[in-house]
Every structure is written in C-alpha cells, then in structure tokens.
Amino acid sequence: MTTLTVVIPVYNAKKYLEECIGSVLDQTFRDYDIILVDDGSTDGSADLCDELASLHACVSVIHKANGGASSARNAGLKAAKGKFIHFIDSDDMLSGSKVYSELSSRAFAADPQIIFFRRERFTEGSREIDAVQPEYEFDGVFSGDVLRHVLEKKYQMTLTCPVNKIFKTEFLKQNDLYFCEGIDHEEDEWLPRVIACAQNVWFDKGVFYTVRNRRDSLSATPNEEAAARKACSKIKIAVTGVKYMEQKQLSPETMPLAAAYYWGYLTDACVDCSRFKDKENKRRVKAELKKNKPFFRSSRYLKSKNQRILGVLFRRLGVSPTVKLIGIRYGK
C-alpha cells in the first residue's frame, strides 16, 4: 500500500495535463501513485494519459464514458489503494516540490481523516498569484465536532472545494462518501457530508495547491436553461443535505448552522428563478420546490427569524408567491 493516491479526473485537458501531473512527479515525497481518470475526452487527452502511464510506473489510467467530474472522482476513489487520497483538477497544480514531504512530516503521521490546507490562485495568461486563501484560525490536530467548527469559523473553501484537502481513503469508503452524480455543484453537496462524518482532522496553514483561473471559464456566460438546471441542483443539495444531517443527529448547536447553510442554497435557487424570463425555466424550478415540500419544515432549525418565516410562507402562501417575495427581498 502506498501512502497516497492522487486522483486526477481528465476531460479535454490536453493543454494543461502535463503541467498538472508534472507538479506531482516533481515531488520530493515518492510514496504515491497517480490515477488518471479519462472521462471520455475527445481532444487527445486519452492518448496523452496512456503515454504518461507508459513513461511513469506510478501512473495508471482509467478510461470511461463521459459522466462528469463526480463520476470520474468516484471511479478514482473506488480504485484507490493509498492510505490517503488527494483529488486534483487537471488544469491546476501543486504549489512547489515539497508539498507532500511537508504534509508527511507533520499531518500524515497524525493519521487524520481529513487534512485541510490552503490554496492560491492565478489567472491564466499571468503567473502572478492574485488570491490566497486566508489562514485557518486553528493549526494542527482537531478532534470533536468538525462540522460545527468549520461552520462557526466560516473557513473559506472548506465546504465547496475538495482540492485543498487530503482524505483518508478508508474513511471515505467505509462511510460511503462518494460524490453524487448527475447534479451541478456536486462538491457543495459532497463536502458537508464528509466533514459531518469526521471526528479527527488536521488543519495546516501551508499554501500547497495552486488553482488556474481559466479565461475561457471566466468569459463563458451560462444560458438561462443551464441556470435553471443549476438552480434545481441547489434545491436538491438543500433537501438531501438537511435530510442527511438529520440522520446524523447533529448536536443542537450544529444543526442550526447546517440548516442555515442549506437554506442559503434554497434561497439562491429562488432568487435565480425569480430572474428567469422563460416560463418553462421558472416552471422547472418551481416544480422541484413543490416536489420537496417537507423540506420547508426544516426552517424550524434556523436561528434567523427572517429565514424561519420563509418556511411558513412556503407552507401557507405556496411556492410561486414565496419565490417572488424571495426574489424581491434577496435579489438585489
């Protein structure tokens, strides 16, 4: 068994893949293997994956039909043999050659279920770092109610970003912590579940991961149909998230924090819906809300009076009037 398995989902990333995987191969820490998951690429990335595997004994490739990032990560997780697992995006890279060596000398030895570290970002076309994740207030081993700690401290990038974390592989598999497939914002759905299951983690103030802010993604303007699909995903995240946290029987201090997190997704979906011009897109989102009416009762967990009122409005006024009110109240 290796100490670490690095899983890199690959979809039409030929332009970036060699730099990404090179940042792993350059590590002074050598006890790792790399799984490239080719998710049905059509730009030559699949052949490049095979070429890299032929050149480096530590690299293996999984070829699969296109199923999205969640499907690719799940395939990598199922195949992972390392004690720990790190998911890396194919257009990003590690920050320097001693990332895993530094984590090995302090975090790996503590045997945590999750290792949190920091990330930085640059915009494609310039190598200047234009954003750095703030430091965690805590440093080292943390045991106890991890979800409550993360939500109270409002640690950036902890609930929506898997790449600035390393996970114990057995912990993920034993708790059936696989990514939900077929939705947008899948990372936002996955990470709170993972953190809710954790009892022993490591916070590290090191900046170990570099995100490439791609200009093509910056310039891409989603159409309303795509926005409606994402709004429906936000509703699903809210509904399944609250249900999961109820089953986990979170503490009275943690459940209101988790509920507020998920109600934020529901509110965002309603604001999006209120802005749509196309009636069919509005109908799709409202139908998703109506299908999940029992969720509205979860407003009882919320500490905010305004948010609790939203639950009452959904139940008494109905979906359409309440969506309109939310759009007026929060859509500025």
Please report the first level of CATH classification, the CATH class of the largest domain: Alpha Beta
Named CATH topology of the largest domain = Spore Coat Polysaccharide Biosynthesis Protein SpsA, Chain A
CATH architecture call of the largest domain: Alpha-Beta Complex
Succession of helices and strands = EHEHEHEEHEEEHEHHEHHHHHH
* Structural domains: how many: 2
Specify the helix fraction band: 40-55%
List keywords for this structure.
single chain; 2 domains; 10-stranded mixed sheet; about 20% strand; globular
List strands and helices in order, with pairings.
Layout: E1 4-10, H1 14-25, E2 32-39, H2 45-55, E3 59-64, H3 69-79, E4 84-87, E5 93-94, H4 99-106, E6 114-123, E7 129-132, E8 140-143, H5 146-153, E9 165-168, H6 169-174, H7 186-197, E10 200-213, H8 215-219, H9 224-248, H10 255-275, H11 279-291, H12 305-316, H13 319-330
Parallel strand pairs: 1-2, 1-4, 2-3, 6-10
Antiparallel strand pairs: 4-9, 5-10, 6-7, 6-9, 8-10
Helix pairs in contact: 1-2, 5-10, 7-9, 9-10, 9-11, 10-11, 10-13, 12-13
